[in-house]
Amino acid sequence: xxxxxxxxxxxxxxxxxxxxxxxxxxxxxxxxxxxxxxxxxxxxxxxxxxxxxxxxxxxxxxxxxxxxxxxxxxxxxxxxxxxxxxxxxxxxxxxxxxxxxxxxxxxxxxxxxxxxxxxxxxxxxxxxxxxxxxxxxxxxxxxxxxxxxxxxxxxxxxxxxxxxxxxxxxxxxxxxxxxxxxxxxxxxxxxxxxxxxxxxxxxxxxxxxxxxxxxxxxxxxxxxxxxxxxxxxxxxxxxxxxxxxxxxxxxxxxxxxxxxxxxxxxxxxxxxxxxxxxxxxxxxxxxxxxxxxxxxxxxxxxxxxxxxxxxxxxxxxxxxxxxxxxxxxxxxxxxxxxxxxxxxxxxxxxxxxxxxxxxxx
Length: 361
Description:
Layout: H1 3-6, E1 15-16, E2 23-25, H2 29-32, E3 37-40, E4 43-50, E5 56-60, E6 66-68, E7 72-75, E8 78-81, H3 83-103, H4 111-126, H5 129-150, H6 157-161, H7 165-177, H8 180-188, E9 191-196, E10 205-206, E11 211-214, E12 232-237, E13 242-247, H9 250-273, H10 278-305, E14 309-311, H11 314-327, E15 331-333, H12 340-348
């Protein structure tokens, strides 16, 4: 079903499978090494937590966050691999990310570099087991809905074929690479920030590391987690100390509007205090002072949000790590082997044992 669409993927050229690496990482090794320790020259070992059973173990980054022939599929034209294509995107992004981490800044990132960075983040969002399992779950929900109407025996061939492992793999590859430029444009339109963990605290990373959240209330039945939704926040840990953030521009605009509204409210109270009784005037003036003080705090926060680097506190880091736990399909890495948070989250809600899923309504 997806053979023809494989040939329409932009930016890359598909390769007929050759004798390249069998183990295909869906989180690149250049990122994993930052969350690992070099035990022997060139050999990096990470502390891994398995959400499915609560087990922790050390592992060579060569053999984690990937699967054998993950990006290799059978098509009507033969066996096709997109591993080299994905590796080329990783290779282009790696030196840009190295430079960002070295300088803790975007100052030396050109427009072309930033476009490459956005393409890489878009790829990371769609390429792993988490993305494929979300897609499979949606197909199964759709299959169930259609079967309720037409019966299992009368399902369209496209829906029946989608159940095979090879077809699932094709769908996963197509969705990870199809419209990659459009996703990248969406990221490029966001406010980009670097989030810095304070001393004594570190970010963890999961096997589905692009985390998406939104503090804006959901509008009725519609999800608020679409990339174009108002208030959307997108995060990718780059190292134990730095997380890359893409924010909807309305987040900063919301604070700006509130600052203006609160300043006007305080000014109106002071004007009214001049023409009313003395005891009420004191009350209004006190309230106006309190509003101004709180607005000063909000304005200070707003100023920090406009900076390209933002220093987080302990609770901010905990929130970021909680997003990694909730998005991870199975595995997490912590450089300092601190897995208290995922253990606590799993104890409170066993649904965290797998990554997030979408529900058809």
